[in-house]
Amino acid sequence: MSTQVDLKELAEGRKYLLSGSVGGELPLCLVSGKGSIVKDINGKEYIDCTSQAWSYNIGFSHPKVIEAAIEQIKNGLTHCRTSFETIPKLRLLKKLGEIAPGNLKKISFCLHGSVANEGALKLAMINKPDAFKFLAPYDNYSGRTLATIAASWPYRPISRNFAPFMQNFIRVPNAYCYRCPFGLKYPDCNLLCAEFIKTTLERGAESVAALIMEPLQASGGMIPPPQDYLKRVREICNEYGVLLIFDEVQTGFGRLGEMFASELYDTIPDILTFGKGIGGGFPLFGVMLRDDLKGYEPATHSFTFAHFPVAMATACATLDIIKEENLLENVRKMGKYITEKLLQMKEKYELIGDVRGPGLMIGIELVKNKETKEPACEEATQFIKEGVKRGVIFGQSKFRGVGNVVKIKPPFVITKEEADKVLEVFEEITDLLSPK
């Protein structure tokens, strides 16, 4: 591939990049992908345990996705105003409506998860017109627009410039059993983290429209909730008339081994946001709303490219592929296999403090000492670099320098042979970075 491009031209282009990327840029120029593998400009292959921002659930270059995209492009309609209907849009609405959890049967689309979450906040305000405050867990992540960055990690490196826009969110402790904010142990804690939400609502001076949260906290540390936590949160929201928003942008469409985390945890929110994995590599996000709630008023949430027929066609193909190829079963199978091997490593290495799932949403928390649980942030950053050297792309929680969780979230089509290679590299790096 390097002989077919002008490397000097690429270097010149790189100079003009205004970066806002997640963490530090990896020194890779990617050119192609197939299944769980991506290839760089020099021809080196990598097993991608990030699925490129957790978006290639069904793998790179699936022939049915490519076919769906090409067919729609050949039709000459790659863009359409939201005022009009298209065949891909109506087909996708039918497919989504049939699998949407509970009564979340009103659906809208956009091109970014941040915009979807902003749309969810708007819907909460439309349905709770006298309430303008929101609750969000400490390490929640909802996006990077001015509205959603306020609901994301409240760390000074990213929030200090936007503080004037961050006044409408009230923080509550997240359900982080490995690092319980109350210093308690589950289940003896009696879900105090959930009860704290009740106390906040009960004693707060201002009305709250909604609680927005990820059912499994992803970018904030790969933190699954303890059993019955989400059910208790649902009960509290019902008791105080607060809407519950689940951000399933990462967990939706099979990442945890069920189509939605809402189903896995048997808790249905009032509003659900989705995206990433549904488009088969094409951008598509959206909102599902409880069918008895008010929808958007005219012109309150409409965008030029919110109706993208190509992505809607590939989304239809993606949903078919997940079902036809029984990919949810492979998520459960490979997730269990990888997690069990990592738990064995945990017993061997001081560096591995905790291993979390479920499915192919695996987080490994690195610590300097298992007793003190001091976060090994520098080691996590180095872990990613060492993985790239060895042909595996791992993810890292939060943003560069803050997170100490290494993430393994490959495409659903990952094979046992590929998983074994990932595990081999993981242990090699763990051994390298562990105190001697």
Mind explaining what this structure looks like?
This protein is α/β, with parallel strands linked by helices and 436 residues long. The protein has 2 domains: 2-58 and 328-433, Aspartate Aminotransferase, domain 1 (Alpha-Beta Complex); 65-324, Type I PLP-dependent aspartate aminotransferase-like (Major domain) (Aspartate Aminotransferase, domain 2). Helix content is 35%, strand content 15%. It is built from 13 helices and 15 strands. The chain has a 7-stranded mixed β-sheet, with helices on both faces. Strand 11 (352-356) and strand 12 form a beta hairpin. Helix 12 (377-389) packs across helix 13. It is globular, with a radius of gyration of 22 Å. The two termini are 42 Å apart. The mean pLDDT is 93.
Write the layout of secondary structure elements.
Blueprint: H1 7-14, E1 30-34, E2 37-40, E3 45-48, H2 51-54, H3 63-74, H4 87-99, E4 106-110, H5 113-127, E5 133-137, H6 156-159, E6 169-172, H7 192-203, E7 208-213, H8 229-239, E8 243-247, H9 261-264, E9 271-274, E10 285-289, H10 309-324, H11 327-348, E11 352-356, E12 362-366, H12 377-389, E13 392-393, E14 395-396, E15 405-408, H13 416-433
Parallel strand pairs: 3-13, 5-6, 5-7, 7-8, 8-9
Antiparallel strand pairs: 1-2, 2-3, 4-10, 9-10, 11-12, 12-15, 14-15
Helix pairs in contact: 3-10, 4-10, 7-8, 11-13, 12-13
